[in-house]
Amino acid sequence: MTISSRVAAALGASLLLFATPVFAQTTAAPAAKSDTATPAAPTSEGASPVMKSGKPRSPESVECYKEADAKGLHGKERRKFHHTCVKEAKAKK
Q1: Is there a contact between 29 and 35 (Cβ–Cβ < 8 Å)?
Q2: Which of 1, 11, 43, 85 could form a disulfide with 64 if both were Cys (CB 3.0 to 4.6 A apart)?
Q3: From the CA atom positions of the chain, what is the Rg in Å?
Q4: Non-local CB neighbours of 60 within 8 Å, separated by 6+ positions
């Protein structure tokens, strides 16, 4: 075995030894979430839910999501239904 192959083997072995603890699971409990995060559901009665971006949802959007839930829609069908439902609801106004 040449010196360069021995050095390469030693480097490979040391990488495996030192990289293994990075992938190990910790036994400590996960950190608690901070209070600065925006709640997904309204905190007061009658307030509209808030999107991830922080903008409140329109009443039409909330109603359309409730209808999609009642119909059991998911994925692309749910997005398509919501889009057309909101469009129709705003056109009625």
Answers
A1: no
A2: 85
A3: 26
A4: 85, 86, 89, 90
- Note the pLDDT of residue 45: 46
Q: Which tokens is 89 given?
A: 């609801």
pLDDT in tens, 5-62: 888 888 777 767 666 555 556 666 666 665 555 555 444 445 557 777 778 888 999 9
Of 90 and 54, the one with more pLDDT: 90
Once rounded to an integer, what is the mean pLDDT over residues 63-78?
Answer: 94
Q: Are the C-beta atoms of 86 and 60 separated by less than 8 Å?
A: yes
Q: How many CB atoms lie within 10 A of CB 52?
A: 7
Structure tokens of 59?
Answer: 């009443």
Amino acid at 38: T
- Going from the C-alpha of 32 to that of each of 7, 11, 36, 47, 53, the distances in angstroms are 45, 39, 12, 26, 22
